[in-house]
Design goal:
This protein is of the alpha/beta class and 290 residues long. The chain contains 9 helices and 9 strands. It binds zinc ion.
Length: 290
Amino acid sequence: MYKLYCEQHPGKSVSFTIYRNLTMNLRFKRPKIDTCTKCDTLNAKLKYTISNKENEKKQIEELLEEHQNEAENAYKSKSLDKEKYKLNEKCVTYAFDLQQVLPTPYLTSNKMFYLRQLPTYNLTIHNCSDGKSSHFMWPESTGARGANEISSCIYRFIKSIPERTDHLIFYSDTCGEQNKNFIVMNMFQYVVHTHATVNRIDHKFLVPGHTHLECDIDHSVIERAKKKTSISIHVPRDWYQLVRTANKKDKFSVFPMEIDHFFGFFGIIHKRTSPEKKNQNKRYSLVKVH
Ligand SMILES: [Zn+2]
């Protein structure tokens, strides 16, 4: 870096010691490994399109620009929504995502590579206004990681929010099986119809391939704690304890999910779509999923 700096400022460059002191906060990052498929495909097409096909190249460039603008606008929308809380405490923005599976027991023995481990799931809901995170955790023996389980965690979370809140904004990625589906949508609808104060919920999605959410930072904090931990992890509740203590500023709360916390929100869709039950639409009831 210093060499490049000297090349770009011949005769005017400062000494290496001064340069190092001034750039102490700069760090090299590893190359990204989780890049966007659409960006990669378009960039590859652009690179290998024959140079005389100017029209084709222009079309690809326009597609790439449009896609990147769309992704940028989604991030801007999230930043604007986060600011809304400062003007109106009744409107709160959250980001949610499921963490990579946490295997139990967590051992470094090479035999573990060939054995089936019990997965523990963690759905993180990050409050973008105060930076606190709620972690809803359960082992696979209690529940799967489908739309009903995700909805049940969010439903439990919404029941615990302060009563003054009336407008919730949720951000997530577009994973169809977990986040972007009718079951989650119907759970939100159920909340709007039954909650004492919440009367509006917006669920917004980031552009596929550009889905960096605040909960991803929480997950990387947990991953770091996982590597450094001296806690022996033999049962799922050991993971709960690790997550609880992973954030040094005490911003992580853990809510273990038991079988009774899971509901089937698909039943509500059925009620609303069957014509013979039209008159009963105003009466909702939750059914247990397991
Ligand atoms: Zn992209």
